[in-house]
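User: I need a structural model of EF-hand domain-containing protein from Albula glossodonta for a docking pre-check later this week. Nothing fancy, just the predicted structure tokens so I can convert them on my end. Input:
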Amino acid sequence: MSRLESAMMILMDSFDKYSGTEGNKSTLSKSELKTMMEKELPTFMKGAKNQAEVDKLMKALDHNGDSEVDFNEFIILIGAMTCACHDLCPKK
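Assistant: Understood. Predicted structure tokens for EF-hand domain-containing protein:
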């Protein structure tokens, strides 16, 4: 697999690892999302340790209003974070 294909597999595996530990296996609940972000994105979570910030993020991600984050909504989060990092990181 190419590096990009491997990255896609890692994203899918990461989502699947945390989704469904409580309830729906194809979505992340608020607590699953928080756990995933704490374990997989610790650098980004340094400033968002309180529940109010997780609630705000969840509301922003939950485009269909079902109080869960599906894979499409998860990819929007990862894409937005990647864009922010790309804009802030020095270019080669």
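Before docking, keep this in mind: The chain has a mean pLDDT of 84.
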